[in-house]
């Protein structure tokens, strides 16, 4: 019996050192490949999320800007409501040089039904991040009410409807590296027409960075946007 047990035990010997080293080498290759694959797909996943985040923020701003541009020059034909001064419909916009600061004028109604003349001011403002110390640019939208629409509707003759501490507009998009606006298709016709030589469309270009870098590579994702919006009221009114 003792001899038989010894024989059986001998039939269940473990791996040799060479076999262990080979198994360890193969396992190491498999694990290294899995880690590399995970790192690659994790980085791609983060990059996709960053692009989606940029698109979500920018598309919201584009919708807002297109709504303002489409209303440019709108006049509510109410009693004693003065005409919109055509030179003030689009301010600081020309067809030759792109601007990073422009204004739109049109009539609107408050929640209580009160008619007023609005001046919408889009502009870039630099600031320093309190967390990183990085200098960034934020796109702001200042929504203003003109105080003397009969004579003018400018920043100096209007008051902001926002209650920010600095008395300025609302930040609507962060990390904007490029913001340019160009006037297109100035209206022709009779020189005394309502919107003679007022642009019938605006072209807007923006470049926006993702809110954060991709970890491990310090990669910053930037996306470019360009769109053209028609000023419907300018185009329709003779």
Overview of the molecule:
Strands 1, 2, 3, 4, 5 and 6 form a six-stranded antiparallel beta sheet that branches. A three-stranded antiparallel beta sheet has the order 7-8-9. 29% of the residues lie in helices and 32% in strands. The protein has one domain. It has three helices and nine strands, in the order H-H-E-E-E-E-E-E-E-E-E-H. A hairpin with a 5-residue loop joins strand 2 (101-109) and strand 3.
Q: Strand count, sense and closure of the main sheet?
A: 6 strands, antiparallel
Using the CA coordinates, give the radius of gyration.
31 Å
Average pLDDT across residues? 85
Distance between the termini: 115 Å
| Overall number of strands | 9
What amount of the residues lies in strands? Answer: 25-35%
SSE ordering: HHEEEEEEEEEH
Work out the helix count: 3
> Which structural category fits the helices and strands?
alpha+beta
Total of domains: 1
Short characterization:
By secondary structure, the protein is of the alpha+beta class. The protein has helices at 2-10, 17-71, 232-236, and strands at 90-91, 101-109, 115-128, 135-146, 158-160, 170-173, 176-186, 199-209, 222-230.
């Amino acid at each position: 019996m003792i001899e038989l047990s010894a024989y059986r035990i001998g039939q269940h010997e473990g791996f040799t050192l060479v076999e262990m080293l080979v198994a360890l080498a193969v396992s190491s290759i498999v694990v290294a490949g899995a880690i590399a694959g995970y790192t690659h797909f994790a980085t791609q996943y983060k990059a996709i999320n960053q692009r989606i985040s940029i698109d979500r923020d920018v598309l919201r701003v584009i919708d807002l800007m297109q709504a303002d541009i489409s209303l440019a020059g709108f006049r509510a034909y109410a009693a004693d409501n003065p005409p919109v001064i055509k030179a003030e419909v689009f301010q600081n916009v020309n067809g030759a040089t792109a601007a990073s600061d422009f204004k739109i004028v049109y009539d609107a109604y408050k929640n209580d039904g009160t008619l007023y003349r609005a001046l919408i001011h889009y502009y870039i403002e630099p600031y320093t991040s309190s967390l990183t110390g990085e200098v960034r640019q934020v796109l702001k939208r200042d929504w203003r009410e003109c105080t003397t629409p009969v004579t003018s509707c400018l920043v100096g003759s209007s008051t902001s409807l926002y209650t920010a501490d600095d008395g300025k507009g609302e930040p609507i998009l962060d990390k904007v590296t490029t913001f340019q606006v160009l006037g297109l298709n100035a209206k022709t016709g009779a020189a005394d027409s309502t919107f003679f030589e007022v642009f019938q469309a605006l072209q807007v270009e923006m470049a926006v960075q993702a809110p954060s870098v991709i970890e491990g590579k310090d990669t910053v994702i930037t996306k470019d946007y360009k769109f053209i919006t028609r000023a419907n009221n300018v185009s329709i009114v003779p």
